[in-house]
Amino acid sequence: MSDPEELQSRLSRADAGYYTVEVCRGIATKIDRIRELKLQRNAVLLAHNYQRPEIFEVADFTGDSLGLSMKAATVNEADVIVFCGVHFMAETAKVVSPGKIVLLPNAKAGCSLADMADVKDVADRIAELKVDHPDLGVVCYVNTTAAVKALCDSVCTSANAVQVVASMSNKTILFVPDKNLAAHVAGKLPDKVIIAWDGHCYVHQQINPDSVLSVRAMHPGIKILVHPECRDDVVKLADAALSTSGMVDYARDSDATEFLAVTECGLSDLLAVQAPEKTFYRACKVCRFMKMITLDDVISSLETMQPEINLPDSVRIGASRAINRMFELTASMAAIN
Length: 337
Ligand code: 13P
Ligand code: SF4
Fold this sequence. Notes:
Layout: H1 4-11, H2 21-41, E1 43-48, H3 53-56, E2 61-63, H4 65-74, E3 80-84, H5 87-96, E4 101-103, H6 112-115, H7 119-132, E5 137-141, H8 146-149, E6 154-156, H9 161-167, E7 172-176, H10 179-188, E8 193-196, H11 202-205, H12 209-218, E9 223-226, H13 232-235, E10 240-241, H14 244-253, E11 258-262, H15 265-274, E12 279-282, H16 295-304, H17 313-330
Parallel strand pairs: 1-2, 1-3, 3-4, 5-6, 5-7, 7-8, 9-10, 9-11, 11-12
The protein binds 1,3-dihydroxyacetonephosphate (13P) and iron/sulfur cluster.
Residues 86, 111-113, 143, 201-203, 229, 264, 287, 289-290 line the site of iron/sulfur cluster (SF4).
C-alpha cells in the first residue's frame, strides 16, 4: 500500500499547495490500483518528462521523445505499452513496437505543433521544392503524425536534430514542422540550407526574453537551460539549449545549484522532485495536452484496453523507415523492425 505521507513529502516539492495529505491519500489508492492492473495486463508505463507528478509515481520509465522511442522499441517482455504523453509519441511507440498493444489513456492528448503539418500540405510542398532542389532532403521533427513521418527521409528529436541534419549528405533540407528548432539547427550548421516549415509550439512560443532576463538579474550565477522549441531570442540567452532529458542530466551533473528550465512547467516539477538539493526557478508555461492524462484515465485505459493506437501498414512501414534512419544517422541504437 502506497504511503500518502511519504507521497506528500515528495510531490509537494512540485506544488506544495495542491498536494495535501488528503489529496495524496486519494492518489495512493489510485497508484495501488494501477500497479495491480499493470501486473494483470503485463503492461509497462512510459511517461514523458512533462506529465503530471503523480504519473511519474506509476511510470516504469520517464524520458524525452528520443529516450521514450528507444525504450518503446526494447520493452520486449511487456505485452502492453501504456503511453502517458501525447498522440504522436504513442504513435511512435506503435511504429517501433508493432506487435504490442499501445494505449494512450486520453485520446484528446494531441499536440498543436504536430497538427500544424498536414500530410497533404507536406507532400505538396516536397513536390514543389523538388523542382528547384532535386537533391532536397526532408527531416521531420518527431512532433509530427506517423503519416507525415512516412514522407520524410529521417526523423529527429530535440536531442539529436543538429546531429541528424549534419549527417545527411543533402545540402538543402526541408525541416518540418518547428521553425524555431529549424532556426536552431541552421545556426549550428551554416553550410546547410534549411527551409523551415512555418510551425511552432504554442507553449514555447509564449516564453519571451524578459521572463528569462528578470530571473537572471535576480540570480546572477544561475544556469539557464532552454528548450530549442523556444524563440530564437530566448535560445540566445541559454547556457545550454537541450531536450527535456538533456536538462535533467545537465542539472544533475552540474556543480551549479541554481537553474532556470525554460520550457513546459512539468519539467520544473520533475526537477524539483528528482533533485531536491538544488533550486529551480520558473519561466515556464503549461501544455494543456501534456496535462490531460490523469490517474483515473490510466485506470480506465488498463481496465478497458482503450483507447488503443493502430496504424495502417503503409504508414507504419514508411514511418519506421524514417525513424530507423534517425537511429542509423545518430548510431544511438541498432536499427529496429
Ligand atoms: P523532448 O523530446 O525534448 O522531451 O520534447 C518534446 C516536446 O514535445 C517538447 O515540447
Ligand atoms: Fe506539442 Fe508544445 Fe505540448 Fe510539446 S509542449 S506536446 S510541442 S504543444
